Structures are given as C-alpha cells and as structure tokens.
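Good morning C.,

I know you're traveling, so I'll keep this short. The sequence:
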Amino acid sequence: MAVIQMNLSSRYLMMDTSVTVIIPVLSGGNNEKTLEEVYRRDVKYPTLYLLHGYSGDSTNWLRYTSIERYANEKRLAVVMPSGYNSFYTDIPYGFKCWSYISEELPLAMRAIFPLSEKREENFVAGLSMGGYGAMKWALRKPEFFSAAASLSGALDIVEIVESAEPEGKRGFENVFGDPSKLRGSDNDLFYLAENLVKENKTSPRLYIACGTEDFLYPANIRFKEHLIRLGYDITYEEGRGTHNWYFWDKYIRRVIDWIFSV
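The tokens, ready to paste straight into the viewer:
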C-alpha cells in the first residue's frame, strides 16, 4: 500500500486543504510479480470515500483504525478528505464544503490517482457527522456510488437540531442557516430518501450500524425504519458500543466486507 498525505488547493473552499489517500500499489501478495506488473499504468482501483466526524480531520481514520490493512485485503483505494465541522454542507456564510466534497474532490483525486470512475466501483462511508455526510452524498448523487455506509451517523439532523440546547442550536445555525428551513431541504436525509423514491431513481445499497449505548442510537433507528418503509435495499447492524473508535474500527471492516459481498 501507499499512504499519501497531501495538500490540495480547492477552488470551492478558496484555500489549501488536506487529504489522506491510500493506494493499493505494492503489498506482500505482490512480491513475486515484476515491478512492471505491480506498477501497471492501466489499473484503476475501486474507491471508498471515507468521511470523518465532528472535530476530526483527514487523518483520523488512519490514526485510530486499521483502515490501511482492511483496504489492502480488498485492493481498495481510500480517499479521506477534511470536512471541518461543516456537516459536509455549503455553509451560508462560510466554506462550500458540500460542493468541494461532492464535485471538486472526485475530479481532483481521479486526475492525480488511478481511481475507477465506474459507479459499481465507487463507495462512500463515514462516522457520526461523516455518516450523515455519506448518506447525504449517496442520496443526492445516487448515480455516483453503488454503496454507502453510516457508522453512528447523525442521521436525523432535523431532530438533532431542534432538540439542541441554545448554544448548540446557534452552532447549527452557523452551518445550516435558519433551523425552520432545515426540514424538507437538501440537508434533510428523510426528505432526500423520499424524494429519490418519487423520482424513481436507483439508490445505492445502504448500510447503517450503531452501538446500542450510543446517544445517536434512536436517530439511527428512526432513519432505518424510514428507509424500510420506503422500500430501500438496506443492511442494518447493531451491537454493544458507544460513540467511540472501538466500535468504528470493528464496523468499518464489516462495511468493507459488505461492499464486496455482491
């Protein structure tokens, strides 16, 4: 594997931003191959876009899980951008993080690295805020991904914002704008799921996992049941655990196995 920690000049963010990338180039299983066979220029790798949670950055998954080892087992490229505390949203008076993540980042990564452009070989996942971001990306751009996964995701963002304490609610206002306009918007996963069905578009396969002691567990159950009512192809798993890296390290491996299970 090759691990690249790079800085990218983003047009949408209007600043330099960090991205951590795993590319499955040379590994133990390739030792008997010639260098020409290992470093082939015509290979395009299946790709997982992996999003961090609130207060995190592009290095979190690499530092706190064994994602490099898990990706190596499947010959999977992994792109881990910094999304700041944006909830992967175009902030009304701030960074255009949604536009950067969903439009600019894939173009930049495919221009630099040998990544597949096929829908069936592109996937997205994330934890907490990143789980919300992964589901939003998949539901708003279903033509881009064949599978999407959320671990302990902030999936019922409307309820989370509406039930927040005044200080927390002000923070959400900075990200989403007027809270009264959040329900039924492009940042409301429940609305996006309904709208995709109404438009008769093909959804990616969806995976949701959450710890039963996690404070976001009720939100995950509500969204899971909403998807089932709408007829989505969804895999749901839960187990003992809270909002921590022990749970996410265990379940990101399950996500990768699930991605390649079809």
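Safe travels,
E.
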